[in-house]
Amino acid sequence: MTSPLPIPVPDICVRVKLNVGACGPYAHIVADFEPPGPGGELELLSLLPESQLPSEYLPPLEEGLREGLDGVTAAVLITDGSFHDVDSCELGYKIAGQQAGRAALIGAALLPPEAAATLRWATWPGMPRRRLSPSRGTHRRVS
User: What are phi and psi of 117, to 5 degrees?
Assistant: First the structure.
């Protein structure tokens, strides 16, 4: 059973940079998440021209969004992004979709703020911040 995203979560930015050897998967998107429209299905729209985000990366991005949203439906508008001629690949955009979907769930309070610590490449307004833990000298995310 699916449920709709309850509130908008704007400006989720994901920049995947994996370094595997000399290069690695790269993907960059900025997306606004909204509650779904009539029909309640996941909807992915891009405002970007092919020269900025080739359409071949939209199916893996959508697959990653479905996985990241984990049964929650939303209307997703890609407002910015980029690709790299050599390093961009389907895997990078699938990871970007997964990270963006999870960020939307955290931003909509469907996941606890602590879940943000698992998102390596995603940022968004209101994201829980990292701060130095005085007891361990390590960074952790807090609300």
Answer: -65, -20
Express each pLDDT in 50-75 by its tens digit. Answer: 999 999 999 999 999 999 999 999 99
Q: How many CB atoms lie within 10 A of CB 138?
A: 8
Q: What residues contact 43, with CB distance under 8 A and at least 6 apart? A: 36, 37, 74, 75, 76
**Average of per-residue pLDDT values in the chain:** 88
Taking the C-alpha atoms of residue 87 and residue 56, their distance in angstroms, rounded to an integer, is 14
Q: What are phi and psi of 98, to 5 degrees?
A: -60, -50
Residue with tokens 């998967």: 25
Specify which residues 43 forms β-bridges with: 75
- Residues, the chain: 143
Residue 90 CA to residue 2 CA, distance in Å, equals 26
- For residue 142, the model assigns a pLDDT of 47
Strands 75-82, 43-46: pairing is parallel
